[in-house]
UniProtKB/TrEMBL annotation:
Organism: Novipirellula herctigrandis
This enzyme's EC code(s): 5.4.99.9
EC category name: isomerase
Cellular component terms (Gene Ontology): cytosol
Protein name as it appears in the record: UDP-galactopyranose mutase
Family membership: Belongs to the UDP-galactopyranose/dTDP-fucopyranose mutase family.
Alphabetized GO MF terms: flavin adenine dinucleotide binding; UDP-galactopyranose mutase activity
Upper taxonomic lineage: Bacteria, Pseudomonadati, Planctomycetota, Planctomycetia, Pirellulales
Start and end residues of each UDP-galactopyranose mutase C-terminal domain: 145-342
Keyword Isomerase: yes
One Pfam family recorded for the sequence: NAD_binding_8
Keywords, in A-Z order: FAD, Flavoprotein, Isomerase
Name of the gene encoding the protein in the UniProt record: glf
Amino acid sequence: MYDYVIVGAGLFGAVFARQMCDAGAKCLIIEKRNHIAGNCYTKDVGGVHVHQYGPHIFHTNDDAVWQYVNRFARFSRFSYRPKVNYRGTMYSFPINLTTLYQMWGVTTPQEAKARLESERVAIERPSNLEEWALSQVGRQLYETFVYGYTKKQWGRDPKELPTSIIRRLPIRLTWNDDYFNDAYCGIPIGGYTALFKALLENIPVETEADFLADRERFESIARKIVYTGPLDRLFEYELGANDWRGLQFKHQVISEPDYQGIAAINYTDADVPHTRCVEHKHFDPVERDHTVITHEFPSDWSVGDEMYYPVNNEAGESLQKRYAAMVPKNYLIGGRLATYRYYDMHQVVASALHLAKQQLQSTSDTIPLKRAA
Ligand code: UDP
């Protein structure tokens, strides 16, 4: 009998399993795919670590989370500074003084502030992504950097999306072009898969095992199930499928050492079908004669497709709540898919550590634990 059968070898499941196993609990991880690491998975293509399911950049302000992940890998000092290509012109991004210089020729924070103020659209209470962006940066910047990219990524008009999606991005009146404001940022040297291997050392993992295809058996061997997959799938879409976005990746090996000179270029014109082109070498630099690039194409999602982004609109949130109320008592849920949250990796680590701590406090009398987390 296992104390926990953990469904999914992604970040939430792996961190939770590590914590519980270190404390003496007996865990089994089952994973539908043929590999560990969930969407963080990186594949070694001739020495280049390819982020197979989209780029993952670890960033956090949380000392404990940063120290935790550094136990399992060394991190490079990578910081994310993508560029935007809009109709053939390159811009610095996220919006900063270089961007505003390129757009308007302003050279100081004061000039930039004055110009931005004259561009902003007066909207007292912005209620959707478009209104919020217009109220912050005005129509020209909105159309150059936000409208097309957002429409492609979410398959909806930005008027139909919540402001929270765009509020993730900084707008700066300095020359700082770092995507993240966090104190710590990096990429595990050797790729994420190596980090997961270290995280899962000595923990049994069954890959290519579909929990839902053999649910009764897995339930019969576990005191508790930790489920990290989507709830609509868990309940066989009984109340309907939730709103998700899909994503297609076109990976290409190119016979030249450097293709685009940077890790990511965002294509913000609505008429270009991909949202970005990623060159993996620049995340974790290696000297090779070849390079690997990936074009990302967001797609409509339908039952059976991989889920990438939860569409956190009102309908999606309300369906998620109804499913969450149906989760059996011996189930614990966590991670981006099960909680239907647009989480970053550091938030997933923090929430897995939190759940493990709670479990250790509440179950120490029923599971023979070596020590508290
Ligand atoms: N976004 C945009 N233009 C860009 C990049 C991002 O308008 O060039 C918007 C878009 O709505 C996106 C949101 O900002 O959904 C958040 O972007 P982020 O890079 O955080 O998304 P991630 O790929 O990390 O999930």
